[in-house]
Amino acid sequence: MVKTISQGQTRSSIQTPGQDNLSRPTSGQVGHRGRTPPPSGLSLLAAVKKHPVIAVLVFILGVLAVLLLLPSEERKVKKQFMALSNVVSKEPGESVFTTARKAQEIVPLFDENCELIMPADSVSAYFSRGEITSYVIRGRTRFSDISLRFADLSITFPERGTAKVVLTAKLNGKAVDGDRVDETREVKSTLKKIKRKWLFTGFEVVEVLKK
Amino acid sequence: MTSKNRLRQFFFPSITPKFLLRVVGVALSAYLVFTYVLIPIHIQGSSMEPTYHNGGINFCWTLGALFSKPPRHEVVAVRLAGHKVMLLKRVVALEGEWIEFRHGKLFVDGNTIEEPYVRYPCNWTLSPRQVDQGSVYVVGDNRSMPLEDHYFGQASIKRIVGVPLW
Lengths: 211, 166
Prior knowledge:
The structure holds two protein chains of two kinds.
Chain A: H1 40-50, H2 52-69, H3 73-88, H4 96-106, E1 110-118, E2 123-128, H5 129-141, E3 143-159, E4 162-175, E5 180-194, E6 197-206
Parallel strand pairs in A: 1-6
Antiparallel strand pairs in A: 1-2, 3-4, 4-5, 5-6
Helix pairs in contact in A: 1-2, 3-4
Chain B: H1 3-11, H2 17-37, E1 38-42, E2 57-61, E3 75-79, E4 86-93, E5 98-102, E6 105-108, E7 111-112, E8 126-130, E9 135-139, E10 153-156, E11 160-164
Antiparallel strand pairs in B: 1-2, 2-11, 3-4, 3-11, 4-9, 5-6, 5-8, 6-7, 9-10
């Protein structure tokens, strides 16, 4: 028995004598193979309509990927703090080459002049790049290991090319004479975008606990 | 349902919309509780020894400081730039009071204050100063180091996040 199926209809399950029930097209029958595939745009739309949850998930993942991978100004500013943390931190047994490399890496993080304000110690002055570098190097040599970490960064851009950051700075370490250092302070920092790079222009230690 | 089936259903539940909704509800509740009400804290440093040890674990109970000002001798968490790193100190003087240290002894408004939680010897001397309105004076329990090396002072009550759970 032969049945002709026109386009749009499903293949019949009527068997011809001697054949099994598998839906194989026989002579005279027109199955799915005879149809022309719909345009790819339409098939995507059809897929979205068929699986809306998966489509929404894929869209959300795509947006997240774009947000996470594209470098934003906020991320660039955070990167500068990570770089500062890296150049100041020191592990026990640090080699001379690492020390020299870190000393070179300090300079490009700061602007020509950087303001430092520490009300508790009555310090309010501008320091040049060279002075900052020498203070950092001298400070690092006084410690066998030191760690500078930043947390709770809150970044705002009050005007174009200026970033103001309020953060918590934690300095932990062991001096060469054995004394331990454990300081935690709230710090306000200012950065300016100069030649497409965010450079530190000021630090102010906030007096949270006034003696 | 037999107990074996119940056990299997408990450890390997069917992924139904109801189950997914429960998971989302539990995750959201946990996030809200442990971010805003019971903040897990890891104690670093020795300024509150021997009351709280370096490396200790605790929770900061934020509702403890929400409705009332902290009383004297209360241990509080003081916020810095955010909630990830906070200071753990004890309130020793309240707003408007005069605080002073004489050879390690605490005086408030000229009166000696007993501090049974201070176990290590202390020889601090700090001239009298008045605590501002809206502030409390906080100090750590470990006063064995020189006064200059200990981070203490008056903090705004607005910066007090909560109290340790134990």
